[in-house]
């Protein structure tokens, strides 16, 4: 006779019991049965024995006639299960002790940490992060207990085992986590999905190990290569040449010309005088900055590797609410992946909940270890890698959402119509009322138009590689010419002799043709033309409004101008340049004197510009933060859990792989290899985290 089985008892009514052959079995009264069991049952000595005894309970088969067929139902002794479950189930409830712990947690830890981080944020522009600044955080963190609570747990009365496949069946109180019967199509899809996750998690395990090792070696090399910045003897560069570009020795003007009566003597004599004048100016230059500064050789090394997230330091306080919500969401996705994979592979899930370590939240899934060990190794890899896999999938979806953000915000914001300034670091020369402010829309840097994010970097690099000057009329140069000059580290000053100057005035340099009427042994009677350097004190705003000139586009293109023009350059050295930033909201452009790298490092911009004047720029930032943090946190949570380290998913993946690949080895040797791999992972992860704090403090 064909039989069918169900995974749970539909009611608690008394049903005549049958043995394996279908014969009716005499039932004893409930009270007598309890007395008999109470006299013969022995309490387990340990928690593990209680769990093993619980799993060894064999269900009695109960049957009844339904439409001519015998319906078989697996049941268990609920009284015995409840008694054993009380010995294994931890006493977890929100009672007075937990409430007091939460109150102490908020009063003692959060208050002091927030006060300290607020102080760090206020001192951010004045000092760098030091180890002493984190002492209060570290001293308080170890005092905080591990706060953990459940959102759902299985109850003892709902533990029912299927006699055929051993899966945990659905009971009245755990339908949300039950293993429901699946069709063959759904079973194949689930198997393919979690098999892909297992393969991806293994790839991530090896990939993140190689990446962290490479970053650790690069960071160690970077820290070892750091040395005090020794400023070489500053020299005024040749005309129109940036000091960052060295001048070959054969192009330097000679100091001493040969003393002979030839034409070469006359041609070199003015150059020697000019070189002697420049030599005297060199002795006025300072030897460099006083206190030594650190100079990082590897460009971009600060941004690489693991970066600790400290609220108020590198995480704005205004981002904290959305950061915490996204972090909780990413943790839930991670743990739900484990839970789904476990239930799909017939592994019992005991509960789900959240925990807090200091100010950071997390989630956990309790999977029954005994039933998990009984499954095949590849199914265990499916369960262990499901959290990593789901985090990576969520990161991919977040990236697609971020790419679609302009389309989502298109009714209120435009793209390709300039760049919006989001913030300017207080250390930048562009910070302040005369510089850039949040909400400004930048249209151009000098003559380079900016429309997209890539245009911003391209314009900055273009100004660095090609130094531009401005074409000024001769009449203006004659009125602003000066002979009094003095030198600072990065700039030549020549405006001290003028009374009507402002902060916008600075020194510009140009070249003038010299005339010499000496006779050269009756061989040369023409005028010999030699160039010399001339300095003018002019308003930078007036100069930047004039046409651009450089080595490829001289001022000769303005020949129709009755007043001839001369190309002048700012008298700035050692990488300092003058930039003209066109802002849509301002009548006059913003002038900037300094290193152009600050435009990239200290100015945060956004490609979205508001379509209407009443639209707030913060709206776009709030919408963009969701996919940004979701991508970052999901990717970080998934990859970090793949590290072969204790207490992470990588620990279980490594253990399962070693036990499967080296199954012919003795158990002791496999355990030793597993311990060595995990210990290496702990050292690797801890070293990267430590160097992350070091770079955060000194860079």
Please provide a written account of the structure.
Strands 11, 12, 13, 22, 23 and 24 form a 6-stranded antiparallel sheet that branches. A 6-stranded antiparallel sheet has the order 15-19-18-21-14-20. By secondary structure, it is α+β, with helices and mostly antiparallel strands. A hairpin with a 2-residue loop joins strand 12 and strand 13 (448-449). The chain contains 18 helices and 24 strands.
What's a concise summary of this model?
The chain has 699 residues and is α+β, with helices and mostly antiparallel strands. The protein has 18 helices and 24 strands. Among the domains are: 4-89, no CATH class; 186-225 and 318-349 and 367-412 and 615-699, no CATH class; 255-282, no CATH class; 448-610, no CATH class.
Give me the secondary-structure topology.
Elements: E1 4-5, E2 17-18, E3 24-25, H1 30-40, H2 47-55, E4 60-66, E5 69-75, H3 78-88, H4 96-122, H5 135-141, E6 147-153, H6 184-225, E7 227-228, H7 263-282, E8 294-295, H8 320-344, E9 349-357, E10 360-367, H9 369-373, H10 377-403, H11 405-408, E11 413-424, E12 441-445, E13 448-449, H12 453-465, E14 469-473, H13 474-480, E15 481-482, E16 486-487, E17 492-493, E18 505-516, E19 528-539, H14 540-544, E20 548-549, E21 565-570, E22 576-583, E23 590-595, H15 597-601, E24 603-610, H16 617-641, H17 649-661, H18 667-698
Parallel strand pairs: 1-5
Antiparallel strand pairs: 2-3, 4-5, 6-9, 7-8, 9-10, 11-12, 11-24, 12-13, 12-22, 14-20, 14-21, 15-19, 16-17, 18-19, 18-21, 22-23
């Amino acid at each position: 006779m064909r039989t069918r089985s169900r995974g749970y008892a539909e009611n608690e009514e008394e049903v005549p019991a049958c043995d394996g052959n279908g014969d009716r079995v005499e039932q004893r009264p409930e009270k007598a049965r309890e007395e008999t069991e109470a006299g013969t049952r022995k309490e387990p000595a340990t928690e593990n024995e209680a769990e093993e005894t619980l799993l060894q309970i064999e269900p009695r088969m109960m049957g009844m006639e339904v439409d001519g067929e015998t319906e078989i139902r697996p049941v268990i002794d609920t009284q015995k299960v409840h008694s054993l479950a009380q010995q294994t189930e931890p006493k977890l409830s929100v009672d007075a002790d937990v409430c007091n712990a939460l109150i102490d947690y908020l009063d003692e830890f959060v208050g002091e940490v927030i006060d300290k981080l607020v102080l760090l944020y206020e001192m951010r522009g004045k000092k760098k992060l030091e180890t002493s600044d984190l002492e209060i955080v570290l001293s308080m963190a170890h005092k905080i207990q591990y706060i953990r609570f459940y959102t759902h747990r299985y109850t003892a009365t709902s533990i029912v085992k299927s006699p055929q496949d051993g899966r945990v069946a659905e009971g009245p109180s755990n339908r949300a986590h039950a293993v429901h019967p699946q069709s063959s199509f759904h079973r194949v899809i689930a198997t393919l999905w979690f098999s892909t996750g297992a393969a991806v998690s293994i790839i991530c395990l090896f990939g993140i190990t190689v990446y962290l090792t490479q970053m650790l070696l690069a960071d160690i090399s970077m820290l070892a290569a750091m040395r005090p910045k020794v400023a070489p003897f500053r020299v005024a560069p040749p005309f129109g040449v940036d000091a960052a570009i060295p001048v070959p020795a054969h192009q330097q003007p000679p100091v001493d010309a040969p003393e002979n009566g030839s034409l070469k003597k006359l041609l070199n004599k003015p150059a020697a005088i000019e070189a002697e004048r420049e030599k005297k100016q060199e002795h006025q230059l300072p030897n460099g900055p006083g206190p030594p500064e650190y100079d990082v050789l590897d460009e971009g090394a600060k941004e690489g590797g693991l970066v600790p997230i400290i609220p108020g330091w590198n995480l704005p306080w205004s981002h904290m609410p959305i950061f915490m919500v996204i972090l909780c969401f990413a943790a839930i996705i991670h743990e739900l992946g484990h839970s789904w994979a476990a239930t799909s592979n017939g592994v019992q899930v005991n509960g789900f909940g959240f925990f807090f370590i200091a100010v950071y939240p997390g989630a956990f899934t309790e999977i029954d270890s005994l039933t998990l060990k009984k499954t095949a190794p590849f199914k265990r890899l499916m369960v262990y890698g499901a959290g990593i896999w789901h985090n990576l999938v969520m990161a991919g979806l977040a990236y697609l959402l971020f790419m679609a953000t302009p389309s989502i915000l298109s009714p209120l914001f435009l793209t390709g119509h300039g760049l919006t300034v989001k913030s300017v670091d207080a250390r930048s020369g562009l910070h302040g009322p005369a510089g850039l402010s949040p909400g400004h829309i930048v249209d151009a840097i000098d003559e380079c138009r900016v429309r997209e994010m890539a245009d911003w970097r391209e314009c900055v690099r273009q100004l660095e590689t090609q130094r531009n000057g401005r074409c000024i009329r001769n009449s203006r140069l004659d009125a602003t010419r000066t002979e009094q000059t003095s030198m600072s580290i990065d700039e030549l000053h020549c405006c001290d002799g003028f009374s009507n100057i402002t902060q916008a005035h600075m020194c510009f340099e140009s070249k003038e043709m010299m005339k010499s009427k000496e006779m050269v042994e009756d061989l040369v009677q023409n005028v010999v033309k030699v160039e010399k350097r001339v300095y003018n004190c002019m308003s930078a705003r007036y100069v930047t409004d004039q046409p651009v000139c450089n080595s490829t586009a001289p001022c000769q293109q303005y020949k129709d101008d009755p007043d001839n023009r001369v190309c002048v350059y700012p008298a700035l050295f050692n990488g300092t340049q003058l930039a003209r930033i066109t802002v849509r909201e301002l009548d006059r452009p913003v002038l900037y004197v300094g290193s152009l790298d600050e435009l990239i490092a200290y100015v945060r911009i956004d490609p979205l510009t508001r379509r209407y004047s009443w639209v707030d720029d913060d709206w776009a930032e709030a919408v963009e933060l969701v996919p940004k943090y979701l991508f970052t946190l999901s990717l970080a949570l998934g990859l970090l859990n793949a590290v072969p380290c204790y207490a992470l998913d990588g620990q279980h993946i490594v253990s399962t792989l070693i036990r499967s690949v080296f199954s012919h080895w003795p158990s002791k040797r496999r355990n030793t290899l597993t311990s060595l791999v995990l210990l290496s992972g702990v050292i690797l992860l801890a070293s990267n985290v430590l160097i992350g704090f070091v770079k955060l403090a000194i860079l």
